Amino acid sequence: MKLTFRWYGEDDSIKLKFIRQIPAMSGVVTAVYDVPVGEKWSDKSLERLKQVANGENLEFEVIESIPVHEDIKLGKPSRDKYIENYIHNLRAAAKVGVKCVCYNFMPVFDWLRTTLKHINADGSNSLAYSHEDFAKVNPDELHLPGWDESYSPDELKALLNEYKSISHEKLFENLVYFLKKVIPVCEECGINMAIHPDDPPWDVFGLPRIISSEENLDKLFSAIPSTANGLTFCTGSLGAGRSNDLIKMAAKYAAQGRIHFVHLRNILYTDDKDSFAETGHLTAEGSLDMAAIVRALVKNGFNGYVRPDHGRNIWDEDGKPGYGLYDRALGAAYINGLFEMTEGE
Prior knowledge:
It contains twelve helices and twelve strands. By secondary structure, the chain is α/β, with parallel strands linked by helices. It has one domain (2-343): Divalent-metal-dependent TIM barrel enzymes (TIM Barrel, Alpha-Beta Barrel). The strands form two sheets. The chain has an eight-stranded parallel β-barrel, surrounded by four helices. A four-stranded antiparallel β-sheet has the order 5-6-11-10. The longest helix has 22 residues, at 168-189. It is globular.
């Protein structure tokens, strides 16, 4: 297991020297953030990320993410141009030693919550999703936490309209088309693609979700058998789908060599529908058995990259929602303990 930490580049308020002080931290997970989606990344930008990470004795082996342009997801004629740009970025990343790329194929929104500062019982705040609050959202007048600055109202409305003609089957076909182009390049340059599950794992605003369950993943791996076509096993995203058996899935896909990256976080179910709040990482804080999930991974041969996923804001930290320093550092320490104990059994 290689323990890593999400870092948003040199503009991140969390300094690399702090990340380096977390026990057993091997590297950072980052990306080029100042280039529009679908455009080419420069060698200079990637080399700079490697340089500053290595300067703090941290590796730069995982990118999260190289975003997939909406034209690729929609299957537009322009998709081939954007896929060629994606391939350029993969080759450039491989040149600086990147070995894993986390990406997603979610239309429009690659995560969705109804609040960024849910107040937990311990006084901390975290991301949360309320079924009741979501039911009140008017799709024609969307104002979503974390997304209001990503699209203008007109841009968002136009994009949602384009997806009205895209079924689950068509979106899956477009994913397979994309992967058939990029996976041979990944095999050539030693990169694993690790698709992130839908977050949350159900349709929103009529937008299809296609990576939400064991059935979906089996279909994807059958369509593209190469093990370079793999998974980011995100416990919080898959765990929000209450029919998902995370322990079984962790064991199954680890044994297949499909899990290249793991996001470990816990969530607490807050009603009998779909609602959940993000909590501290340890098992007792939420509804997921984190210890059993890690045991299933280790006992079935997983030896890839792991990071503590979303944390709470604690100790008066007012950090980027989900991505403050303190609670993710606590989560990393807990993850260290789980792996050390399980690997020693």
